Amino acid sequence: MKGSAFMFAFTCGLLVACLPAEAQVDQLWKKIESTSPSASLPGMSLSNDKIASGLKEALTKSTGTAVASTGRPDGYFKNEAIKILLPSSLQTIGKGMRMMGMGAQVDELELSMNRAAEQAAPAAKQIFINAITKMSFEDARNILSGGNTAATDYFKKTSSTELTQAFTPIVHQSMENVGVIKQFNQFTQNSMVAPLVGNFNLDSYVVGKALDGLFYMLGQEEKQIRTDPAAQTTSLLKEVFGKKQ
After folding, report:
1. Which end of the chain is more exposed for a tag (fewer CB within 10 A), N or C?
2. Which of 30, 32, 44 is nearest to 241 (CA)?
3. Cα-based distances in Å from 226 to 151, 218, 245
4. How confident is the model at residue 151 (pLDDT cuts 50, 70, 90)?
5. Which residues contact 60 (CB under 8 A, 6 or more apart)?
6. What are the b/e assignments for 161-200, b being 16+ CB within 10 Å?
């Protein structure tokens, strides 16, 4: 029960952020039932009402952890797992510049890239909602039977293109606002750096790293709720997700 109920709950988990939670859960539940009225989700012996209530709580938890934790000041910059650093092709040069007393320039560039990612992250909410509303019963079944990051992998597969399109203008504007482009131009004007830059696209690099970090946090939350009873923080979550299969 635990894994199956959680995986279905997690796929629904990002709906609650923008619309009334009960309406969202009811809408999705009816959609899945109408898609395959005679099919049942494996391992779910609780009533639909109980499952729906549990979904609303799991939904709030997963959304709050993944999106809000990245879309705030220092959400990327002070999280070593997702902090955006210089591109690998420039890291050796960055170390050399630090040794030459130019570390402040490198630090400012890295901080600015992370600030841009933090400002873009909240745009993911609606895109995840769109992916869920398009989910078929077969999608849900595959996620339920998948591994610890099956839901995250589903969102990565179905939402990456739309997320990239949504993040790119936000990241570009944010980088202008917080000075990334200016910092990068100053950085690449250094005679040691310029030959290594070539046709490097700063927007694409920061957007790609921002998405990597967002999906990483989603995956971590998914694993935690599935495997850690401490993540089931209310009696309802314990009842819905704490039962053994």
Report:
1. C
2. 44
3. 11, 12, 12
4. confident
5. 13, 16, 21
6. ebbeebbbebbbebbeebbbbebbeebbeeeebeeebeee
